[in-house]
Amino acid sequence: MDAAVRTEASSWIDTVSTVSWASIAAGAIVAAALSLALFALGAGLGLTSISPWTDSGVSATTFKNAAGIYLVIVAVMSSAIGGYLAARLRTRWTGIHANEVFFRDTAHGLIAWAFAAVLSASVLAAAVTHIVSGAASGIAPAAAQASSPLNPSQIYVDRLFRADQSATAPTAAAGNNEAPRAEVLRPWTASFRENSDLAPADRAYVGRLVAAQTGLSQSDAEKRVNDVIVEAKAAADIARRGAAKLAFWMTAALLFGAFAASLAAVEGGQLRDGTWQDRRLVPRPW
User: Fold this and answer.
1) Per-residue model confidence as pLDDT tens digits over 100-152
2) Do 168 and 270 sit in the same domain of this protein?
3) Global pTM value
4) DSSP class per residue in 27-83
5) Of 33, 147, 153, 258, which one has the fewest beta carbons inside 10 Å?
6) CB 79 within 8 A of CB 10
7) CA distance 227 to 194
8) 135 and 265 both lie in a single domain
9) Is residue 74 part of a domain?
10) How many CA atoms lie within 13 A of 270 on its CB side?
11) Domain that holds residue 157
12) H or E stretch at 105
């Protein structure tokens, strides 16, 4: 009779899911909310550390590295708290081997971290964007008040047609040169989007337009075109390296966050089951 009862109980336990979704959701929500609060704090600290004045505030390199480190710290702190709550709030498992309980607690922390990551990327993306845009408007209010976004290529086109004081500009240059600017802007934007350079035919044609509009000689105009192209490539390379570093920092933050959530969940589960006494691990009974 006892054997039959034990068999039925074991069969019933095996058919019930061991995932405590309520505790996982609670830990994930807390982790996401804490991440949002820490991001807001980081935006405030970042604004206080930079300055538009020369020799004031931290350098761009220091700011980027500090921002990356802070991103990792935020991920570790929020994920650890979320994983701890996910394991501490779960129901108690009875008749389970200690190794299985250890695995389940680790899995609960990892699932809570993944839930919080998805929640932060989807639901909280608008809030984070609002915080970042608010910081950007504080740094550059003139850009925030612009009626339409500026095409970055326009900056380099303006440099191409910048008047040279030492050159004698022809009569056409004194008039409206919006048509030549627009004519250069279109191939410039298309070429840099595809090949990060101007096609040889477009480069020669742009040089002739610059010479006609600015009064420079053909050789000087071609040199200006080449110099501006080098500047555009350098700016694109800086943006590429910055995006790569940000991707690496985000990857590190996610990995450290997953580890912190899993480790904190183990401790939370041990405290839930009463097997963490006086900072000494006591094996769970079978």
Assistant:
1) 888 999 999 999 999 999 988 877 666 656 555 554 444 444 334 444 456 77
2) no
3) 0.71
4) HHHHHHHHHHHHHHHHHHHHHHH--SSTT-S--HHHHHHHHHHHHHHHHHHHHHHHH
5) 147
6) no
7) 20
8) yes
9) yes
10) 20
11) 152-237
12) helix 98-122
